[in-house]
Amino acid sequence: MKKQYAMVIDLQKCVGCGACAIACKSENNTQMRQDGQSFNWADFQHEVKGKFPDMTHTSRPVLCNHCSNAPCVEACPVTPKAMFKTDDGITMHNDERCIGCRQCQKACPYSQETVEIGQWSVISFNKAAKDTHAFYRDPSELIMAGTASGAEMARRTHSIPPYRTKYSHPEFEDVRRSGIVEKCIFCDHRVKKGELPFCVEACPSGARVFGDTQDSSSEAAKLLKKHKAEVLKAKAGTNPNVYYIRSFKVKT
User: Fold this and answer.
1) pLDDT 10s digits, 134-181
2) Burial of 238 from C-beta contacts in 10 A (0-12 / 13-18 / 19+)
3) Which of 35, 124, 138, 141 is 20 to 30 Å from 192 at the Cα level?
């Protein structure tokens, strides 16, 4: 039986602290956009219901759903496909084959700029930028005689950007080039070494559980058996492999 990697997120444990988003950005070297905003593959959907004073607020972590019936894979026009499914159920992206047509992004029901509730990133497009790392070439100190310069940080770490996490993967560069799409790959470079996706490892409350749902002994499979799970946009028929169990609502 083939593996099916999945993410189970316990909303009763999630406090919306954002540690997963910071961990994802740190591990995967996602860049700043030209408008000054940041790409986040581990993002949040915020939902407010009711009218004051009877209101509830819910924060729901979101990411690529690694759908079993992935519209992004079907939409990819190149051969072999740049967006494809692996034998363990991950929706993978090959940087070298990507032509930047963004058909995958348009086909993904979770990758719209604005959705029913909130806004989040799933498949991102790397627009060409003048110099996204200009700060790390500038020798000026931020605070005179008080801080290092960006250029000094880069020189001491031997890397631009200095926070770059270096890893190797047959399909995916650790820092993606301009003109192509990029997305969560469940930190496959870590999983292949027997490690967990970094968002899972960083979660302080253990709200994120990653594993093979085809293995009944895995924690992910046990949670799905124990709790009634929900997925986003179930009617889209994509069969997502990111599940949400339980709930936590804050009254305001």
Assistant:
1) 778 889 988 888 888 989 988 888 877 777 899 999 999 998 988 899
2) buried
3) 124
What's the CA gap between 85 and 71, in Å, rounded? 11
Collapsing DSSP to helix, strand or coil, 177 comes out as coil
Q: Given strand 43-51, what is the order of strands in its sheet?
A: 43-51, 54-62, 250-251
Distance CA 90, CA 104 (A): 15
pLDDT digits (tens, 9 = 90+) for 230-242: 999 999 999 999 9
d(CA 207, CA 16): 10
Cβ proximity of 186 and 6 under 8 Å: no
List of domains in the chain: 5-124+166-251 (3.30.70.20)
Phi, psi torsion values for 189, nearest 5 degrees: -65, -30
Nearest to 22 by CA among 40, 5, 36: 40
Sequence-ordered list of residues with C-beta below 8 angstroms from that of 122, at least 6 positions apart, any chain:
41, 43, 62, 63, 64, 65, 108, 110, 111, 183, 184
Q: At 54, is the secondary structure helix, strand, or coil? A: strand
59 bridge partner residues? 46
For the chain, the residue count is 252
Q: Where are the beta strands (DSSP E) in the chain?
A: 5-10, 43-51, 54-62, 83-85, 91-93, 123-125, 181-183, 208-212, 229-230, 242-245, 250-251
Q: Of the candidates 249, 200, 214, 247, which has an alpha carbon nearest to the alpha carbon of residue 10?
A: 247
